[in-house]
Amino acid sequence: MILEAGNYDLDTSEPTVLMHETDCEVLGVSEGDRVRVSGKGSAVAIVSVSDTLVVPGRILLPHSVQEAASASPGDPVEVAISHSPDSVRSIRDKMEGRHLDAEEISQLVDDVVSGRLSRIEIAAWLTALYIRGMDIDEIAAYARSMAETGDRISFDDVRVFDFHSFGGVPGNKITPIVVSIAAEAGLTIPKLSSRAISSACGTADFVETFCDVDLDSDDVRRIASDVGGVFSWTGATDLGPAGDVFITVQRPLGIDPRPQLLASIMSKKVAAGATDLVMDIPLGSETKVRTIEEARSYARDLVELGHTLGIRVECIVTYAEQPLGRAVGPVLEARECMRVLEGDPGYADVADKACICAGALLDLAGSRDGAAEARRILESGRARSRFAAIVAAQGGDPCVRSEDMVPGMYTAEVVADRPGFVRRISNSAVVSVAKAAGAPGDKGAGVLVERKVGSKVSEGDVLMRIHAEREDKLAHALEIAEEYEPIVVEGMIISHVGPGQ
Amino acid sequence: MILEAGNYDLDTSEPTVLMHETDCEVLGVSEGDRVRVSGKGSAVAIVSVSDTLVVPGRILLPHSVQEAASASPGDPVEVAISHSPDSVRSIRDKMEGRHLDAEEISQLVDDVVSGRLSRIEIAAWLTALYIRGMDIDEIAAYARSMAETGDRISFDDVRVFDFHSFGGVPGNKITPIVVSIAAEAGLTIPKLSSRAISSACGTADFVETFCDVDLDSDDVRRIASDVGGVFSWTGATDLGPAGDVFITVQRPLGIDPRPQLLASIMSKKVAAGATDLVMDIPLGSETKVRTIEEARSYARDLVELGHTLGIRVECIVTYAEQPLGRAVGPVLEARECMRVLEGDPGYADVADKACICAGALLDLAGSRDGAAEARRILESGRARSRFAAIVAAQGGDPCVRSEDMVPGMYTAEVVADRPGFVRRISNSAVVSVAKAAGAPGDKGAGVLVERKVGSKVSEGDVLMRIHAEREDKLAHALEIAEEYEPIVVEGMIISHVGPGQ
């Protein structure tokens, strides 16, 4: 069937074309079926049906389809029924619990990235993965296939170190510290970090308060070669883009199938050319990993997966029942991160975790006591100098100091309404308060946890300080704090003190 | 957020509203998230994002959302983030393999019918059902919940008989014969049949060549009360509409999870008020059920499910390795059906299967030898009289005869290219040829299978005759016949004879 192309600007994650219902009847397609649209090139897309948004004889094409089909609005295009891609069979095989080979997995990933699989097919795939799982060989093939869909970064003849956290612990601002220590010890460590998805602040969200994180693959390679370390944003490169397509279906489904999680992480490490990887697995009742058995099982899988992919993996299970350090939110976390580099002794848990993780990297590189060496590099101020060099290489001010980091001017305090001990801190409630205050979009917004688990408190002691850039968001954050009670003493009262200090 | 409503006429199976990307950012929603749209009423819908099809400050609403929200184009509506419905938890529970209770299942069905679950969530549900299955209590609850979503037909104080085939055998034109025999024996049998989905001709497709099948629930009840039997189209009633929503996701996924299949069938029986049901399970290498073990397992489940739902179920496993009778296609099947009622001895397999199925119904009603009684009713001509009465009640001509059924004028023959025996007939290839000829849309299109499995043939004998209403479709059907070789002797040649004949 020949139709005239029109423009359809609907930003969906699967290419969808709009046809009139009469044309659909003639062609024999219904809502959700696939058609091949051919101009000079050719593309497959999903059909949406309307009888008013498009006239008979026309087909509206989103930009991606216009490009693939080499057809512009006004051009005639040939429209034909297109059958399901072969990887639909692999989805059904996985439903049946069958093992898939590398070629089938690669075909599926390719079909996902090219938009040949529909969202409901991807949903079926993720559900099947969630229920049936994958063995290490399948996950390794899956990771390799995802890595092949995007950019690769390669370094000649050097070992490339990397560091990754499973996430789930608020205030985990150690990445720039770990990278600075490792780079200062002579390691090449081009660390790419994400922004917040459901959290209040990702590493990229706070690092960009003091330098540029928008570095492409070439920048990353160049800076890592020059100064050893990089702390950049994953999203500015194009490593393993398949993961991003899966995320658009995973997020509304609210599932994170284990093989998908592992393959997504490892695909980016493969694409980044990593040879040695330290993996932080935070363990806590509100993180992804909730029992030590589960943590050990993930650790075993990651080590084995690394072995299959040619990456040496060392896993560290870390305590995550409360935020790390005190600060949650971009500017606040940046300030605390710098204070640790400046030698401020007030954040022992942050410094300890950074030295343990950096130490594990040094151990992989051959150190006899990596943690002690990392500690020396941090305490001598050499980590701070290396940090300044990396910041400068990423376009920031190498002289930046913690005092330069100024949080939102609207503040409020949450105080204890009785004496007692802090029994429990809810990570998710802390995150909700920080997000209500405006983090991570408002860089100055966030919270400071003033009392950690086990602290003795008197009535009226400040448990938590909230910063915001807007008064209405501060009020909202206070409401959330009142509702969720993030720091449990034995109940508490809330008093609103700001604006002003 | 207050936006101005506009009209969005996009015929998707889940209510989707179109918002400008700026408004989405302010509200904090992305493609695929849910919003609640409130005018005087309120509705939940999925967000699509565009920056050209809609201007900032406006939201385009499909008709269903306008109606539920009581908002017309131009009205201000309140738009707010809406969280996932509770039944998303039930989907995850099923992924984990947990048993769901009746209330959870009912909530899920309700969320599906009201459009509160997205297509990817329904895809995840169907995939989980496919892999995890359901026990009989869950399937019964599922069937009851689906029945509750639509119309119910009720008959006071009479037993209501029903008859159902799993399908998969082309030319299965026995329904009007079975219904006529059973009604003549005094049973109430309001049989609702489907149209072809992937086949060449559903029961409703051929029955409508001689009477009206578009009967609503009231018509069905009235006619069944008057003349005992009805052979109408399921789609004209509103029994168990939930099944139709699931189909829109199942079809592109290409899966038919067993609990879904069983619950869909039984939901319509529950809604139709059936008390006694005979179930035909065709067994063959190209049907849904491919082994006798599988057939027995379905039969056991159906009997037990019936028991739980208060319906007496009798299952009959039937031979389905080749088409039933000779005709496939609406007019051709109607003609063959009438010939059997008229006493033509040329279609023994059709008459036998009809008498066995009708006999099983009579057995349920208390007959001592239902099959023999059914045979007497058919052979005496009483079934034909009852058929005429039902046809009249459904607005058809009671004097209609097989000669009145005139198939398409363009014909061709497929002949044997060597002597031998018919070794195999492919049901799916026969269906493909009939569909290529135009069935079921072109009523006169279809095929006549002239030689069945085991027949001795000489070179040049006609194996299959094709009828079409259009010459181009006849040519297409011949191509398909050449490609798929539906009747295997030992190769064959094809010669084109029509038009004429």
List the topology elements.
Two copies of one chain form a homodimer.
Chain A: E1 2-7, E2 16-20, H1 21-27, E3 34-38, E4 42-50, E5 58-61, H2 63-69, E6 76-81, H3 87-95, H4 102-113, H5 119-132, H6 136-148, E7 161-165, H7 175-184, E8 189-193, H8 203-207, H9 217-227, E9 229-233, H10 242-253, H11 258-271, E10 276-283, H12 292-309, E11 312-319, E12 327-328, H13 330-341, H14 348-364, H15 370-379, H16 382-393, E13 410-416, E14 420-421, E15 424-425, H17 427-436, E16 446-449, E17 456-457, E18 462-468, H18 471-484, E19 487-488, E20 492-495
Parallel strand pairs in A: 1-5, 2-4, 7-10, 8-9, 10-11
Antiparallel strand pairs in A: 1-6, 2-5, 3-4, 3-6, 12-16, 13-18, 13-20, 14-17, 15-19, 16-18
Helix pairs in contact in A: 3-4, 3-5, 4-6, 5-10, 6-11, 6-12, 7-14, 7-16, 14-15, 17-18
What does this structure look like?
Two copies of one chain form a homodimer. The mean pLDDT of chain A is 91. The first copy, chain A, contains 18 helices and 20 strands. The longest helix of chain A is centred in the middle third of the chain and has 18 residues, at 292-309. Helices cover 41% and strands 20% of the residues of chain A. Chain A has helices at 21-27, 63-69, 87-95, 102-113, 119-132, 136-148, 175-184, 203-207, 217-227, 242-253, 258-271, 292-309, 330-341, 348-364, 370-379, 382-393, 427-436, 471-484; strands at 2-7, 16-20, 34-38, 42-50, 58-61, 76-81, 161-165, 189-193, 229-233, 276-283, 312-319, 327-328, 410-416, 420-421, 424-425, 446-449, 456-457, 462-468, 487-488, 492-495. Chain A is globular and about 75 Å long. Chain A has a six-stranded mixed barrel with strand order 1-5-2-4-3-6. A five-stranded antiparallel beta sheet of chain A has the order 12-16-18-13-20, sandwiched between helices. Chain A has a three-stranded parallel beta sheet with strand order 7-10-11, sandwiched between helices. The first copy, chain A, has 501 residues and is an alpha/beta fold. Chain A has four domains: 2-81, Barwin-like endoglucanases; 87-133, no CATH class; 161-236 and 265-393, 3-Layer(aba) Sandwich (Pyrimidine Nucleoside Phosphorylase, Chain A, domain 2), CATH 3.40.1030; 407-495, Alpha-Beta Complex (Aldehyde Oxidoreductase, domain 3), CATH 3.90.1170.
